Amino acid sequence: MEKKMSEKRVRVRIAPSPTGDPHVGTAYIGLFNYVFAKHNGGDFLLRIEDTDRTRFSETSEQQIFNMMKWLGLNYDEGPDIGGNSGPYRQSERFSIYKEYAEKLVEKGEAYYCFCTPERLQKLRERQIAMKQAPGYDGHCRNLSKEEVEAKLAAGEPYVIRLKMPYEGETIVRDGLRGDIVFENSKIDDQVLLKSDGFPTYHLANIVDDHLMGITHVIRAEEWIASTPKHIQLYKAFGWDEPKWYHMPLLRNADKTKISKRKNPVSMNYYMEEGYLKEGLLNFLALMGWSFGGDKEIFTIDEMIENFSFDKISLGGPVFDLVKLGWVNNQHMRLKDLDELTKLAIPYFVKAGYYKDEDLSEEEYGKLRRIVEISREGAHTLKELPEIASIYFEDKFELPVVEEGMNKKERKSVEKLRSSLETETGKKSVELFQEKLSKLNENISEEEAKQLLHELQEELGEGPAAVIMPLRAVITGKARGADLYTVIAIIGKERTLNRIKNILK
């Protein structure tokens, strides 16, 4: 178990950009930050990194808030709830970044760079032609104070760059990977403040993390290459750096970074498809972490209790939708039936099975039973109406053998159709109609079960010979829920009407 942090209160954050739909990677990193904070009795912050105003979307920002709240990853501080370390939008902190960039210039840790875009482009082209790594050549690094003042007075556009050390090494002490060494000579002088006065990600990120008291930075491994720049910024300011943990990236089956071309990456997709938050969080946890033993299904509270970075696997976790479906199915089975039914109602309305979500007591009771049965084979809430169609669709035709069917499917269809052609099949249907017509409309499952049992006794036949033809005329399917359950749910009249429809 992770040792509790006693010397300093744990404070972690996620800092998504509000551009496009909320990304499943944000939920993944958010989960581990949240769990680590709660395991250690610390704080979890949400910060919006919206310095790229050309791509900013107010809708995207709101969707980030909605996603986090839907998942139950409730942050302690953030733009929409406030806190003592705000503002929590970078666009509201621009004056802070300019002030800190200029402080570094005063300390001799950063400098004004007046190079034009044209010069930088030519420099890049020359370096590529000479097969050199592209990077800034330090042209303005040693301008005299007088030269700088003259250029500023003349109104020349500038950026502020960090003075990276030319020699030595920067060591990233990663909590998951150990020490990662970078040669300083291969890292150029990064831009901190752009010519339009906007900060770069590097400056804003480090200043915000320091001022917000972030103690541990838990983020995706794609940021490892930027970390030496961040460490040098901490040194330049004279601040203590946080502890670094770079989580393995979510990957496609071919081990490439997860992308919308090969997997749905929008969290809106998973919410609309009807994945439970418990199932999705459980699956995302399995992407980088092992509970221990062979336990794969667990709650977020269990994860918080048992969390340790020692259980993180650095192998590229494959985002497998089949595995996600299995995990979600397990949570659908475990979920309180009434809660699951209420979550499922909108999907049944959308499927056209109800006019609106305001169900009568009788309708709700039947739907509750339908959900109870259907959830055994459903991977999402959206699949429930598909599986439960036999309870709602009275007009159907018997399946026929079609080209492309495999041997098992073909045999199943042939068996279903032929069951109606046997003498036993015909008698079963006829006697069933006669007996059912004498019962009340609201037949119970027990009564329907008893009726089917009586049929078998009177005809002197086993279940297969009697039930199969009845299943054919009542559901049109060879397999499915127990026939007595279907009869009880749809009632006497609908059952008889279905039989008449098929026999015609």
TrEMBL record:
Catalyzes the attachment of glutamate to tRNA(Glu) in a two-step reaction: glutamate is first activated by ATP to form Glu-AMP and then transferred to the acceptor end of tRNA(Glu). Belongs to the class-I aminoacyl-tRNA synthetase family. Glutamate--tRNA ligase type 1 subfamily. This is Glutamate--tRNA ligase. GO terms for cellular component: cytosol. The lineage of its organism: Bacteria, Fusobacteriati, Fusobacteriota, Fusobacteriia, Fusobacteriales. PANTHER family: GLUTAMATE--TRNA LIGASE (PTHR43311), GLUTAMATE--TRNA LIGASE, MITOCHONDRIAL-RELATED (PTHR43311:SF2). It catalyses: tRNA(Glu) + L-glutamate + ATP = L-glutamyl-tRNA(Glu) + AMP + diphosphate. A motif ('HIGH' region) lies at residues 16-26. The gene is gltX. Keywords: Aminoacyl-tRNA synthetase, ATP-binding, Cytoplasm, Ligase, Nucleotide-binding, Protein biosynthesis. The keyword Aminoacyl-tRNA synthetase applies. ATP binds at residue 260. GO terms for biological process: glutamyl-tRNA aminoacylation. PROSITE patterns: AA_TRNA_LIGASE_I. Its EC number is 6.1.1.17. A motif ('KMSKS' region) lies at residues 257-261. It comes from Pseudoleptotrichia goodfellowii F0264. One of its GO terms (molecular function) is glutamate-tRNA ligase activity.
